[in-house]
Every structure is written in C-alpha cells, then in structure tokens.
Amino acid sequence: MSSNLPVLATDRLKIIWFLLLFYTVIISIPAVAFDRFTAHGGPVRDLALSPDGRYFVSASFDYSAVLWSSDDVSEMATLYGHEAALNTSRFSPKGEWLATAGDDGLVLVWPTNELHSGNVIPVVLRGHKGKVVHLAFSPDGQTLASASWDGTIGIWPMGSGLKNAEGRRRFIKGNDGPVNAVQFSDDSKYLYSAGYDGQIRYWQLENDEYLRSIVDNGWSVSVFAVDEARGILAFGSSDGVMKVIQLSDRKELLYIGEERVPVLSIDYDKKSGLLGFGNAKGRVLLTDTNDWSVIRDFHAANGPIWSLLVMPDRQSLMVAGLDDFITRWPIYEFPPEFLDKPGPARRFHPKQEISNGESQFARKCSVCHTLMADGKRRAGPSLFGVFGREAGGLEGYSYSLALEQSNIIWSAATINRLFKEGPDKVTPGTKMPIQRMKNAKDREDLVSFLQSATQD
C-alpha cells in the first residue's frame, strides 16, 4: 500500500495543475477574445471594405457613416447627409467613390479624396419610393445599382459623370415585393438580384430583360454572393438556410438549415475563399470554400448580426449588429465556442432589475434617444429637459419639417398620446418610427420615468 502513495500524490498534483491551467485559460479568454470600437450612437447596419483594403466604412442607424482605418481601426471621418437610418455602403472598384443609402430612399455618393476634409458634400441621387437596403458597383465602375423595398432596382449610370447620374437613372421592375440585394456579373453586362419573393433573378442590362431565376427558394432571400470565376453562388434566407450551389447545375455544395432563424448578413472574400453568414440571434458561421470546412460557428452577439467583414489580414472578422460598437474577432487564434453569447447587457435589453418605466424606455426609446444633455449622438434628439419643450425645438438637431411646423409642447399628456396613437397619427411626416404601446400602465410608467430622468 505504502509503495503506491508517491504515485497517487504525483497524480493529484498533475490533476490540480491541469485544473488550474484550464480555469486560467477559460477565465482569461473573454479579456483577449475580441476588441470593440465605438463611433456611433445607434446600431450598425453595414460594413464595407475599400478596394485597397486600407479603409472600411460602417453605416449606422444614427444617420451617419464612419470611415475607419483598417490597420488600427481608428476613426478617420464621420459623414452626415442622410435624413434617416443608413442601411448600406459600398466603394467603387477603383475607390474614388463611396456610396451610401438608407431608409430615406436616397443614395449619396461621396468623393473619397475629400472624406478627410470635414466639409465633403455628396451627390444626392433621388428616385426610390422606399428604403434602399443594398448597393453594388459594376466591376467596370460605370454603373451603380440600388436594391429597394419599393420593389425596384435602381440603375445609375456613372460613366458620364455623377451630376448626370440622377437624370439618366432608370428602374428595373418585375420583382415580386421588396428587393434585398444586388450584384453585377463580372463583365458588367448582367445583374443578379434577390428579394422577398425567394428568388435570385438574372437580368440583362442592355434592355433590362429578366432572363431567368437561378434560385427559387420559397422563402425570402436576404443576402447572397456570386463568384462567377469559380461558378458558385451562396445565399442566406429568412427561414434560416445558409446554402452554396454550383451555378452550372445547381448542385448543392453546402447546406446548413437546422435553425429557423433568419440569415441577415453574408461576406465572401474571393482571395481567401472565406465565406461568412450571420443570423438574427447572433450566430456567426465561417467556412472555407476551398475545402468546405467550417472554421467557426459561434455566438458573436446577443442579437442580430447585420454585417460581417473579413479584414484584409484574413486573420480577423469584423462584426456589426444591434450595438453602437463594432467587434473584431480573431478567426484562427481564439475558439469562440467557449463563449455563450458574450457581452454586457444592452441598454435596450437590460438584465438587471429595473422599474417598468425604465424598462419601457430601454426597449422603446433608448436606441434613438439619450437622457443626457451632452449624450452620444442618436438617430433622435436628446430627451434631456424634454418636458415643456416645443416639438422640434432642440438646438443642434436636424428635425423633419413636419415636426418643426407642429405646435406640440411635450408634456405627460402629449407623450402619453404619442405612444397611444402612434407617431404616424400624432406627428405625421416625421422621422420617428411607428410604434404604439397598448397597455395604459406601461405608458404611464414610461412617462413617470421620463419626468424624473430628464430633469437636471
């Protein structure tokens, strides 16, 4: 018996050493797992990389786009010009233009050589009757396409100069419902489009003729990417399907669809073959299309992933969603499966116990509004000192004409009415999203909280 004691003691020491090492690694992982970068006052809807990889842009719910340096992820410039939330941004093939678009139905084109000047003025392209959710430049740089929820695809000729683009615009009709995404063929003569009708359509741009449907999914196709050189097409849909097919015979190369969670984002890096999907519950799936292996499958956020971007080093992935910040995740060095939905509680999804009034503010108001006099920019004005203030009367905020011309004075009664009847009834023509609170107690608690929280 005594001869076995040294061995058992050694084994115990090994086990203790292993457990200490294991817990040290696990505990230390969240501290080094990802980096967060903040420049917005609202959720980030889209990310776009410049052709040379030196810069990328984030488009936000706060009506702004931010230009970042790819190397150190530092903020280079903030662009204002839209009248509502931004949904998308894209650089032209040679990088001389940056196009942005949003809920205001406008497409703004910015000269990139003036972005750092601080007073850059974009060219405004008008014509859509609904929000614009996606943009694409043709590979030859002669045309810009816009996908809109008005059911049309905007075609903006750029060859004769930006100032002539609006006058020479045209709109492709024929989609059954909103259009979610567009992409040009490699020769710039054809266009792919995806939309609410579940189809990925193929158009000839010479006469805007609809040629055929490459995909008929049955559920709305949210995002897609085509690599004609390799003959593959990847797409994600509202029923949670992530799929890759061959263009030639529709042969299925990758299929993931066990979750009924809408797929909201896609990024395909042609040089490396990395393909990423993001869904409405924070899941990120990254695969290598060279051998169809899944590199990463993890929860990157406590909510929707609206955009993914493989960074130029091909070692990191930028993620954007229902947060003011963007997050950079290492692709190979860190195993995200150790983390189960990382991150602190959001201001609009608080985890701690709070009053019902504060909870209603967090869920209904805090994405657009702050309670601080010098708070971060949001899509809406600060509510600090709102009681007794005339609607449209806060200096420094760009209000809609409808609100500026209203005669509303914000009070307990008018704020209660705003959420009872809805902004479309109380303040018609304003930027405020349509939302109502049917429960009278919830409205009363919200008003009571605001009366306290917005005072000096």
Tell me what you see in this structure.
This protein is α+β, with helices and mostly antiparallel strands. The chain is built from 6 helices and 28 strands. The protein has 2 domains: 35-338, Methylamine Dehydrogenase, Chain H (7 Propeller), CATH 2.130.10; 356-453, Cytochrome c-like domain (Cytochrome Bc1 Complex, Chain D, domain 2), CATH 1.10.760. The chain has helices spanning 5-33, 356-364, 401-404, 412-421, 423-426, 440-453, and strands at residues 35-38, 44-49, 55-60, 64-69, 75-80, 86-91, 97-102, 107-111, 123-125, 132-137, 143-148, 153-157, 170-172, 179-184, 190-195, 199-204, 209-216, 221-227, 232-237, 242-246, 252-256, 263-269, 274-279, 283-288, 293-299, 305-310, 316-321, 325-330. Strand 3 (55-60) and strand 4 (64-69) form a beta hairpin. The longest helix is centred in the N-terminal third of the chain and has 29 residues, at 5-33. It is globular, with a radius of gyration of 25 Å.
Furnish the topology, listing elements before pairings.
Elements lengths: L4 H29 L1 E4 L5 E6 L5 E6 L3 E6 L5 E6 L5 E6 L5 E6 L4 E5 L11 E3 L6 E6 L5 E6 L4 E5 L12 E3 L6 E6 L5 E6 L3 E6 L4 E8 L4 E7 L4 E6 L4 E5 L5 E5 L6 E7 L4 E6 L3 E6 L4 E7 L5 E6 L5 E6 L3 E6 L25 H9 L36 H4 L7 H10 L1 H4 L13 H14 L3
Antiparallel strand pairs: 1-28, 2-3, 3-4, 4-5, 6-7, 7-8, 8-9, 10-11, 11-12, 12-13, 14-15, 15-16, 16-17, 18-19, 19-20, 20-21, 22-23, 23-24, 24-25, 26-27, 27-28
Helix pairs in contact: 2-6, 4-6
